[in-house]
Design a protein that fits this description.
Number of domains: 2
Shape: globular
Strand order of the largest sheet: 14-13-12-11-7-10-9-8-15
CATH topology of the largest domain: Dihydrodipicolinate Reductase, domain 2
Bound molecules: nicotinamide-adenine-dinucleotide
CATH architecture of the largest domain: 2-Layer Sandwich
Number of helices: 12
Order of helices and strands: EHEHEHEHEHEHEHHHHEEEEEEEHHE
Number of strands: 15
Length: about 425
């Protein structure tokens, strides 16, 4: 069993009694799980962890996935049947966001270790259910895969804050840009339907909210926000509006035509990731802003635009004795739809420290990241899959805290900017 023994004084200490080998079931034949698969196939984990099964509601997708990624494991369309038959030690949940909670809770109640992709879930009700399940099963190893906090730039900022380089943190500005390649990709997929994702406030911004919680070592208490669908969807009617690109009458002329991977999506009956970006069915925001108050007293202004000219983020942290400015932006050809995370990009990554009383800003060196998401993937995967796992991995509660901010922001936007008490959402 992939469980850990709880030491009441140090609940994060992993017991040496835990068996090293984990038989892992993939819950979701997703694009995302290929990153986990890649690392589990690495020499380091051979004979340590083994992928033994896959579950998804779409048999055609699983068939395509197995062929494309050369994975020879039994596949299931029923989660309980998979667990009863295979008895995995661990499940990695990478299904659509709205469904994580169901599998996370079932896994914990079956005493199966669980790694859930972010966002852990999509609303406060699911947060409560997960918190209750964790309380019933405190010994079960359960992690939220908040990789973004492990980017070298974020870790460097965290190190400097914790060392007191800028003194007590007083305020933060967080600006996120998704360009018209990456940002628009969400509007071709299930992410653009609130029932599946509850919006980018959960799906995308949970990364940023987790980073704020992590950097400030605090949690949000109040939030107010406004948002709109300003570029994609119905409000911006397009002359080539349709349903799905591959069956659209305008596919030969539409500049936004997108060809999905037909080898992966063997059957187009359930879902294909080529939904029309101008569809009236899109019911999430692509542009929103918030003011968030944290328990530690920090006020944070946050904004995201999912149709920006270029991609990246700028984080400014003002402290009592200094100011940090972290910038990670990149420029690329947004018309090349071949790969969302492509390589032909011009990157600008800087970290600047301004010490009060000194005229000259200081340029801080940022360690180079290796692998997916600028090094963030290896940062978290190394911690999850090491034996024993690193105790400092994002917990279920960390996942819940990021979701609560997103859910409270959705609520505030819905109510025209009302202030929402974040912790009272549950
Ligand atoms: N941490 C990161 O950097 C990162 C990056 C990308 C995606 N993700 C997360 O990974 C997850 C997968 O995202 P993706 O873009 O790879 O998705 P995807 O569309 O490639 O795959 C989602 C899968 O879920 C399946 N599915 C749909 N409804 C289901 C249900 N009711 N039960 C079981 N399976 C169901 C679909 O058939 C599909 O195979 C999401 O939660 C996303 O937020 C995380």
């Amino acid at each position: 069993m992939f469980v850990r023994k709880i030491n009441k004084e140090q609940p994060n200490i992993i017991s040496k009694e835990r068996k090293i080998m984990a038989r892992i079931a993939l819950v979701g034949a997703s694009s995302r799980v290929t990153a986990f698969l890649g690392v589990l196939r690495n020499e380091i984990y051979k004979g340590v962890h083994e992928v033994v099964a896959m579950f998804d509601i779409d048999p055609g997708k699983m068939e395509g996935f197995k062929e494309k990624y050369k994975l020879d494991v039994p596949c299931f369309t029923d989660f309980d049947e998979m667990c009863d038959t295979i008895k995995p030690d661990m499940v990695i949940v990478t299904t659509v966001d709205a469904t994580h909670a169901e599998f996370v809770i079932k896994a914990m109640d079956r005493k199966i270790a669980v790694v859930s992709e972010k966002p852990l879930c999509i609303n406060a009700e699911q947060c409560k259910q997960i918190r209750d399940a964790k309380a019933r099963n405190p010994e079960v190893f359960a992690v939220t895969s908040h990789n973004a906090r492990y980017s070298p730039l974020t870790l460097k900022v965290k190190e400097m804050i914790d060392k007191g380089v800028i003194g007590k943190v007083l305020r933060m500005e967080y600006t996120e840009m998704l360009d018209r390649k990456h940002g628009t990709s969400y509007f071709r997929r299930w992410n653009s339907r609130r029932a599946c994702s509850n919006g980018l406030e959960l799906h995308k911004s949970c990364h940023h909210f987790d980073k704020m919680n992590f950097l400030l070592d605090s949690k949000a208490i109040e939030i107010t926000g406004m948002g709109d669908l300003t570029y994609h969807g119905q409000k911006n009617p397009h002359k080539y509006e349709g349903k799905r690109c591959h069956e659209c009458e305008h596919k030969d002329v539409c500049p936004d035509f997108f060809a999905y991977d037909k080898e992966l999506y063997k059957s187009d009956a359930i879902y294909t990731p080529d939904l029309c970006i101008w569809s009236p069915d899109i019911d999430i925001e692509d542009n929103y802003a918030a003011v968030i108050k944290f328990e530690c007293g920090v006020l944070c202004t946050y904004s995201i635009c999912a149709h920006s000219q270029y991609e990246g983020e700028v984080i400014i942290i003002e402290g009592e004795t200094g100011r940090l400015e972290a910038k990670n932006v990149y420029f690329r050809d947004i018309n090349d739809q071949s790969n969302t995370h492509d390589t032909n990009i011009i990157t600008q990554q800087t970290l600047t420290l301004c010490r009060f009383g000194k005229g000259e800003p200081e340029s801080i060196e940022i360690p180079k990241g290796v692998g997916g998401h600028g090094g963030a993937d290896l940062g978290i995967f190394g911690k999850i899959f090491s034996t024993p796992p690193d105790p400092n991995i994002p917990t279920m509660e960390d996942g819940i805290q990021a979701v609560l901010i997103g859910a409270a922001l959705v609520e505030s936007i819905k109510k025209g900017g009302n202030v929402i008490k974040v912790q009272e959402m549950i």
